Automatic annotation (TrEMBL), chain A:
One of its GO terms (molecular function) is structural constituent of ribosome. Pfam families: Img2 (PF05046). GO terms for cellular component: mitochondrial large ribosomal subunit. It comes from the Eukaryota. This is Large ribosomal subunit protein mL49. Belongs to the mitochondrion-specific ribosomal protein mL49 family. It is found in: Mitochondrion. Keywords: Mitochondrion, Ribonucleoprotein, Ribosomal protein.
UniProtKB/TrEMBL annotation, chain B:
It is found in: Mitochondrion. Coiled coil: none annotated. It comes from Caenorhabditis angaria. GO terms for cellular component: mitochondrion; ribonucleoprotein complex; ribosome. GO terms for biological process: translation. Keywords: Mitochondrion, Ribonucleoprotein, Ribosomal protein, Transit peptide. Belongs to the bacterial ribosomal protein bL35 family. GO terms for molecular function: structural constituent of ribosome. This is Large ribosomal subunit protein bL35m. It comes from the Eukaryota. InterPro entries: Ribosomal_bL35-like, Ribosomal_bL35_sf, Ribosomal_bL35m. It holds the Pfam family Ribosomal_L35p. Its main location: mitochondrion.
TrEMBL record, chain C:
InterPro entries: Ribosomal_uL15/eL18, Ribosomal_uL15/eL18_sf, Ribosomal_uL15_bac-type. It comes from Caenorhabditis angaria. SUPFAM superfamilies: Ribosomal proteins L15p and L18e (SSF52080). It holds the Pfam family Ribosomal_L27A. One of its GO terms (biological process) is translation. Residues 96-174 form the Large ribosomal subunit protein uL15/eL18 domain. GO terms for cellular component: mitochondrial large ribosomal subunit. The keyword Ribosomal protein applies. Keywords: Ribonucleoprotein, Ribosomal protein. Belongs to the universal ribosomal protein uL15 family. This is Large ribosomal subunit protein uL15m.
Amino acid sequence: MFSRRLIIRAAQFSTSQSKKTEKLWENPWKHALHQQEQPRTSAKVLEVPIDWSYVERLMPIEIIPDVPKHETYPTPSGWTPPTEAAKTHSYYVRRRRDHMLPLYLERKRDLLNEKTLDFDYVELVVLRNVDGNIFDCENELRQFVEAQLDHPIATHVDELKGRIKIKGAPRKIIEQFLYSKGF
Amino acid sequence: MFKIGLQTAQTSLTRTPAVLSSSARGIANIPAHEYHIRFDQQSGRKRPAQDVLDRFKRLNNGMWIHAHAGKNKLRYMKDDKWQKTSLYYETCTKEQCQMLDKLVTPFWLRPKHYPNDPYQAYNVRHGIDSPRVDDKGRFVRERRKVLLDDSTSSRYFNDC
Amino acid sequence: MSQALRSAKERALQIVEQASKIRIQDARDNLGARTSGRQVRKANNQMGHTQGALERAAKPPLGWIWGDFFRPWQRMFPGEKHFNADINVRREYIPLSLIELTRLIDLGWIDPSKPIDISTLCRTQKFQINPNIRQYGFDLTEEGADSFPYAIDIEVQYATQSAIAAVEKAGGRIRTSYYDVNALEAAIDPKKWFEKGNVVPQRKAPPKTLIGYYMDAKNRGYLADESDIENNRINLANIRGYKLPDHEMVTEPLKTVDQVFHGIPAGSVISLADKKLYSPTNEIHREYYSKQVADKQYS
């Protein structure tokens, strides 16, 4: 009888006894959850097989998709890819990774207007991603734009960065120039 | 002596709870001279001036409009032409627009699009020479166009 | 014990209990902070004497004009309720023009052979919809309607007649449907929704002011009769004078009235890591998610 009681006592002390000597700070979550009664819920689930492609096509697009092949260019929305003619010049303007032209608008502070005592701001168009002979690019660009606008424009060339900043020309005309060259 | 509209934090240790609740500074409870709240007492955020929201409307291109002063006064005495013109809305000058922009929170400076908006036609301005973009490169008066270059967007949109 | 007979110690304890907790950053020294008020003496208020006096004087608050201190410029005009009073009731939509939609299809962001709904448009990450500031979805506008080329199966939240005409002229199918705030949150960012372990919701019915819009076949509402919509489609073609294609583009069957995602039943939980879908086994849950009627009249 005495031994049976000992056996029962031993059974109560299961192998988890070794885990109970684990200190509080070694596993604080376990200690906290052990004291709290787990809430009872009637939410039980069962696996249902579905076509996983329905879920896949809800996931956000992480990588810019490739442009699908069209029969004719420009596409219905007016987009053209770079053409073979682009490779004939002494310079090359690379497209952005989302296949658009690398033209950006910037605002720069100009002189103080003495009448209104407020700063005038001027809009600059920045053409980036220019490789090769950037000065040729700038020359041709200036001739094209000045022919369209009938007034001179200011340009600034940064050869190291491959950037041209243009002042006085709307971005639309510079896009026309780039499309005419095939970029 | 002009009071600057900066609110200092008042801890609840200096007041009893009962007093705190009755003088809670809701929209109607703010004294008229403390309308520009840069830091709210409750959440520490900027508050839009309620006077401005009651009287002015901001269009998407940055222009603020307001009604004529005195348009509800003595209408019976005024002539026909005044009856019509008093109901027009006025635009604000550049300095006034800048000041009103400072008095409200960034939510009110966002361009908002509503279908069947009676002010839709006035949300665009044409023929302005100043830059189309701000310092961050976002359009100031126009709508954001997704993946469109200027040649395409100028054909379909009439924004600038 | 009545309120009045509390001792000073108890009252003090109550104040301390209700005070906000002090955090470590509150106790730290804030170097460079202005700790003393700016000395604004009456003498410095004499405006215009010298530049220094001007700089030291207290400056008037925004809008102050000569006259009454309590009437700044922005209070000198009468109020207009039409301006901003209904800001918490107004529903904002993100404008999506047909030309932008064409460009997205051209560049491969959207596949026209699959149904286009709010989740398809949001997964391009070119649009930001925030349900918290009362944005309810997309409004299809008609820039680019003249030459819309693609036959698409599209579902937006609002559409102008010209946009509907352009889509149907190209041989597409367009429906307007309502997403309540919860369903909208799930639809605009399904990945975040599933990663949180949230249940795929049911779309609730539109509110009273919008039910009329979505039950109208003219707007191709999702609650309208299919036969009415077909009649309207033919009428619109006659009115606008274009030839209607024989059949409209049908990629997949239309979503049911309470469905948020194609092919995923409401009430289920998705595990992206395990690539599994789990359905509830409890009878109450299954009944709740299977009925096609919203349990709340309005959302």
